[in-house]
Amino acid sequence: MKLSPLQMARYQYQPKLPGMLRNGISEICVKNGEATESVADQEKIKALFPNTYGKNEITFQKGQNTSEARKQVVGVILSGGQAPGGHNVICGLYDALKASGKDNVLYGFKGGPSGLIEDDYLIFDDEYINQYRNTVGFDIIGSGRTKLETEEQFAIVAENCKKHGINAIVIIGGDDSNTNAAVLAEYFAAHNTGVQVIGCPKTIDGDLKNEDIECSFGFDTATKTFSEVIGNIERDANSAKKYWHFVKVMGRSASHVALECALETQPNVCLIGEEVAAKKMSLAQIADYIADSVANRAAKGWNFGVAIIPEGIVEFVPEFSVLIAEINELLAGEKTAAFNALPTWKEKYAFIEQGLTKESMAVFAILPEGIQQQLFLERDPHGNVQVSLIESEKLFSELVKKNLAARKAAGTYKGKFSPLHHFFGYEGRCAFPSNFDADYCYSLGYNAFMLIQYGYNGYLSKVSNLSKPAEEWVAGGMPITKMMNIERRNGKDKPVIRKALVELDGAPFKFFEAHRAEWAVETCYTYPGAIQYFGPSEVCDLTTKTLALEKA
Fold first, then answer.
1. pTM of whole model > 0.70?
2. Measured between alpha carbons, how far is 186 from 184 in angstroms, rounded to an integer?
3. Cα-Cα end-to-end distance for the chain
4. In this structure, how many other beta carbons lie within 10 angstroms of the beta carbon of residue 530?
5. Is 213 in a helix, a strand, or coil?
6. Whose CB has fewer CB within 10 Å in the chain, the N or C terminal residue?
7. Which residue ranges make up each domain of the chain?
8. Is 205 a catalytic residue?
9. Closest CA to 106 of 114, 115, 117, 97
10. At what angle do helices 151-164 and 175-190 cross, to 10 degrees?
11. Is the domain covering 16-218+433-489 a CATH 3.10.520.10 domain?
């Protein structure tokens, strides 16, 4: 494999650790914190996790290591979508493991959770691990989305661990993956397997966070990568002065990515799904809001602009959520086959018109025909609309176009509107990790080993105080059950980690809210440029605007 100069340079980067983890494994001790309870549904969660619920939060500090001396054999998996820095979690885990004892062993199970079930693995050594330090992707062992949720699966994983003498599993993943980690940890404890489970918080969407987990890894790099490209688009828009760019960014369940990119680039418009839901905004109201910016800028002679659209925006629109629910019911069971058998879109449209309520049909009717058809072409395994496939950037540009046409007919708008569309998602999932993510991920992995060495089970590796220099970061752990509540999934009550939404009373949104009226009319673009790895600390070690505002 031919290496790029950047890749060769990144191999040499030495990630920074929190101060208390730099003392050496033998000089790290535990400080116990308060006992915990789940964020909601405490009695139900406690009943489901009797062996792992209510444990103390802990932090590591300088002091005599009092853990039991024994050979450590650990397994690790990557679970879910890629996020920058995943390789460094494994590198940090490996380095801590070997620093504790050269005979310790790290198994990497391939292809995510399925590797644990199928016993498909490799054993890491220095030569192999050194190829992946500070690099991108999840190709070190691959990833997957198999869910670990059945007793049969747990029994197989326990047997495979027993076969290899594995005493701990580290699961690197998002909210669903760490929910699975909590359930697996409870099973291992209930069956006295002696196997621990430790989770690490990963997702570029930024929705795995709370008072303890200040941000998930990958968010920093992904938002900087998207912001660089959005800044480039803004510069182009300001040069050509003839296009409105509608940019959709990843973030299915929350708008953290969109908000951070807006804070970094100051576009004319950024929609925040959580605000749309709170204000019960309709599609027409959102289109009118964007059209106001287009018209006001056109009045200044500026027929160009940039609008950022979060991926999951339509699910926050109340009338659209009702429409989706009705469509799911309309095509439930055998009705899908009857619908698909209709030969023309005209006949299918009549079928839809008969099946929807008057209110939902009114919403459906204003959608562009291409979006209407998207709602009926792709279904998930449960027969539901795949909302994430809706091209919301095109949906809103079409609605804005219709709105502006009405204004032009009324004589209140005389500008030109030429929209272009973009979707940024995969471009950020495997970007070279920023210094922050390289450091944070390495620390999460190193810290995960400390949790293993001290015998913790069902804990999430936690590094906090992240807005400060790495020397001041605080390492420790928290029971995964602290983050859980009960939600309805596929007709059943399930324990899951609660997703963190954008807080409308939080400092990041409040800053955005205070400035967006000016951004909507004026050209206030900022151009973040490429992620900097080498140079002055004030350039290459900056944290996200979100974290800086939250911890100001």
1. yes
2. 5
3. 44
4. 12
5. coil
6. N
7. 16-218+433-489, 223-429+506-530
8. yes
9. 97
10. 70
11. no
Confirm whether 16-218+433-489 and 223-429+506-530 share one CATH topology.
yes
Burial of 426 (0-12, 13-18, 19+ CB in 10 A): exposed
Give the integer Cα–Cα distance in Å for 223 and 229. Answer: 10
Measured CA to CA, the distance from residue 220 to residue 540 in angstroms comes to 12
- Residue 470's closest CA among 13, 18, 88? 18
Helix (H, G, I), strand (E, B) or coil at 85: coil
Q: Top-level CATH class of 223-429+506-530? A: alpha beta
Q: Decide if 308 contacts 247 (C-beta within 8 A).
A: yes
Q: Using CB atoms within 10 A of its CB, is residue 257 exposed (0-12), middle (13-18) or buried (19+)? A: buried
* pLDDT tens sequence for the chain (552 residues): 677 888 888 999 999 999 989 988 999 999 999 999 999 999 999 999 999 999 999 999 999 999 998 999 999 999 999 999 999 999 999 999 999 999 999 999 999 999 999 999 999 999 999 999 999 899 999 999 998 889 999 999 999 999 999 999 999 999 999 999 999 999 999 999 999 999 999 999 999 998 889 999 999 999 999 999 999 999 999 999 999 999 999 998 899 999 999 999 999 999 999 999 999 999 999 999 999 999 999 999 999 999 999 998 998 999 998 998 898 888 887 788 888 899 999 999 999 999 999 999 999 998 888 889 888 876 665 566 777 778 999 999 999 999 999 999 999 999 999 999 999 999 999 999 999 999 999 999 999 999 999 999 999 999 999 999 999 999 999 999 999 999 877 668 899 999 999 999 999 999 999 999 999 999 999 999 999 898 888 889 989 999 999 998
84-96 pLDDT tens trace: 999 999 999 999 9
Pair 434, 543: CB distance under 8 Å: no
Q: Where are the alpha helices (DSSP H) in 206-341?
A: 219-240, 256-265, 273-278, 283-299, 318-330, 335-341
H or E element at residue 81: none
Q: Are 15 and 460 in contact (CB under 8 A)?
A: no
CA distance linking residue 210 with residue 190, whole number of Å:
28
Which residue in the block uniquely carries the two structure tokens 């204003």?
A: 366
Name the strands in the sheet holding 168-173, side by side, starting at the edge strand that comes first in the sequence: 28-35, 56-62, 474-479, 459-464, 196-201, 168-173, 73-78, 105-109, 121-123
Q: Which spans in 63-108 are helix H?
A: 86-100
Q: How far apart are CA 256 and CA 210, in angstroms?
A: 13
Nearest Cα residue to 399 out of 344, 317, 509: 317
